[in-house]
Amino acid sequence: MAQIAFRELNPVNFLERAAVVYAGRTALVDDDGFTCTYAEFWARAKRMAGLLAGLGVRPGGRVAVLSPNTRLLLDAHYGVPLARGVLVALNTRLAPAEIAYILGHAQVGVVLVDREYAEVLAEALTQVAHPVQVLTDADYEDQAATAPELVLECPDERGMVSINYTSGTTGQPKGVMYHYRGAYLQAVAMAHHMKLDMSSKYLWTLPMFHCNGWTFPWAVTAAGAVHYGLRKVSGANMWNKIAAGVTHFCGAPTVLTMLANHTDIPEIDHPINVVTGGAPPWPALLQRLGELGISMQHVYGLTETYGPATICEVPPEWADLPLVERSMLMARQGVTNVVGEPVRVLDGDFRDVPADGHTQGEICLRGNNVMLGYYLDEEATARATTPDGYFRSGDIGVMHPDGYVQLQDRLKDLIISGGENISSVQVEAAITELPGVIEAAVIGKPDDKWGEVPIAYVVTRDGVELTEQEVIEHVRSRLAKFKAPREVHFGQLPKTSTGKVRKNVLRQGR
Question: Does the fold of domain 414-508 match that of domain 233-410?
């Protein structure tokens, strides 16, 4: 007998509902002027599912998408699971060999590709052993227009809805398996914490290929808000969209730095809500954004946690604090989001460290918004799991008395100099207090006497001149002298596609 009180959790259901509740409301405004309503969006998704089934995609079949943040990739977040396929959103900054590895590892059968990346994909396919069908965005639009509509129900909410590949900075990327239940619940959390509703206009600055856009392809739809596609992220593009009415977006601190340092900022007469993660935002950046009228929420998470696992909730009483003190509190990683379990900080014996804001341990997470595991890699999955079933983040943090966690460093980024731990994050925050500094990255350099010593890489605004000694003396005025960098290098920083500084690249050149 059918169950009257249960349906498998499936993020596609948000669009099914939106097609009725928000039928005539605008769902998408793409960069090329294309628009559609939620009723039309639902029809497009069903036709994509029918098209994929016609191409031979069966339940469990892998469908990859290589595209910027346009309707092709947004459609796929619904059309692929409607055909019960598994979505593999590809990083658009990968080299052909890296794309080839993912296509082979995931055994992708169909690739949807934006015309901008057709040549990169073609080169990648020469290195793939199995046959792969390819549809360009133009082919997709033509063929989907007459494709039959298809809706396949999710039979198991713990089944795999997508595979998201890590950046692979220390080896081949790992395939992180997401399930329907986690995607659904995380989307609810994101809509809740970002306060999305029918009046919201969400700009796609965060790559949809990164953690399925932190599940915002589903969260924005759940709220009946408007998706604004964005082919290329730049300060000018973002400010133009904001001036036109955009109210919400997400991005790494590097994206916010681009926004804050833009030279031609228009007058804005409406609230702007931003979620940032990927690295702790420097207090100086938070202050600058506050001056621009941008309301900030700081989150923390990993690919393995569907993006934001914690959020720095801002109590109303913080508004009465001095700006500098408030910014310091807002830079913490915070508390678990509304669908997760309490975050823990564990020592080497997997015991909770004291909540004193000083004792360091590894940040560990558990909940419905944690991955199923690494695809075809049980050994790596086991290494990332504590004996009592928590995910080991690999990040060093402290727990404060108020229950807020604060990131200190990546395990691999912690600098140990003369037996003392130096947090690269702490030194970076001190450097960015210097006027004219946009970004900073600090790594450890091998040293015969101390084991390691910190060295810094600094990016300044155009026209700003700083000397190595000025940076060193500034840090010494803020922190213990042994934490000050021994060397300072000026220039641009190598970054991943999601805006994280590639410290492994810096280490290779130290």
Answer: no
